[in-house]
Amino acid sequence: IGRHGGQRTTAGFEYNGVSFGDNSVNLFAGLCAVDSLESVDAMMAALARCGINTTRMGAYKPRTNPYEFQGLGAKCLPWVFDSAGKHGIKVVAMEVTHPRHIDEINDALKKSGAPTGVMLQVGTRNAQNFELLKQIGQQHAFPVLFKRGMGITLEESLNACEYVASEGNPKIVFCLRGVKTHLGDPHRNMVDFAHVPVVRRLTRMPVCVDPSHAIGRAEAPPDGLPDIFHAIGQGLIAGASMVLVDFHPTPEKALCDGPQALRLEQLGALQRYTNIVRAAY
Ligand code: PEP
């Protein structure tokens, strides 16, 4: 990741026609958890209308409670890739929690034939799952979105990325998504986007922010923008070049993290907001 003399990332990289870590912002707006073909298609169509060609889609969901929706897994991959192909989506960020998920994704991509790429996401709960990190590092086909561990030091999270890089996969984006504290918080997590410049100083990885998991609620003050927008502003001003943000066609019906999902009608406003903030700084 650009330290300790290990395998170096470039300051940015290109994957499937999308540049990461340059002066533009990669907006990965999408479904935290895929729940139906209709949701996938509505999301992808909204992205295409805005000219956005990157998204997030959760198929394998690591849930705190085993009785809650665990994601549709391999079953929903054809919906995701067929719809991505139809709407010109070039990169889908997707969390994997087990090495066999990488094979399932590869198989589904081949079967679909869509010219879509996948960015493998390592979730905060697997930030120190070293065997998973090594397996992800050994595959060189997909770039990686690594989410910082919510209860470990930044240094420990950076070392975890080194596990991926040292196995030969240097295409890593480091994602800040808030951290747990013992203080309680009006938000789901303590927003840690002031660490963006720290990661950029210490490593060569492009930095992503995930305001949805950091804030955890899509609400806005009566006369203002949602807290999620403000957190995105903080992240972009601090130097993030990628944003991961949850949307859903009907957040009240979402099977996972509905309260933090923005509505599809807010996508255009979010895109304008990110462009304005990025242009100003
Ligand atoms: C997610 O992005 O879907 C997710 C579960 O995030 P995190 O690992 O940051 O909790």
Describe the structure concisely:
The chain is 35% helix and 16% strand. With 281 residues, it is α/β, with parallel strands linked by helices.
In words, what does this structure look like?
- The protein has 281 residues and is of the alpha/beta class.
- It has one domain: TIM Barrel.
- The strands form two sheets. Strands 3, 4, 5, 6, 7, 8, 9, 10 and 11 form a nine-stranded parallel sheet that branches. It has a two-stranded antiparallel sheet with strand order 1-2.
- Strand 7, helix 5 and strand 8 form a beta-alpha-beta unit.
- It is globular.
- The two termini are 26 Å apart.
- Phosphoenolpyruvate (PEP) binds next to loops.
CATH homologous superfamily descriptor: Aldolase class I
Find the CATH topology: TIM Barrel
Low-confidence sequence ranges: none
CATH architecture: Alpha-Beta Barrel
Instruction: Name the ligand types.
Output: phosphoenolpyruvate
Q: Rg, please?
A: 17 Å
In angstroms, what separates the terminal alpha carbons?
A: 26 Å
Number of domains: 1
Listing every helix as H and every strand as E from the N terminus to the C terminus, the arrangement reads EEEHEHEHEHEHEHEHHEEH
Shape: globular
Q: Mean pLDDT across all residues, rounded?
A: 95
Computed structural class: alpha/beta
The percent range for strand residues is 15-25%
Number of beta strands: 11
**CATH first level: which class?**
Alpha Beta
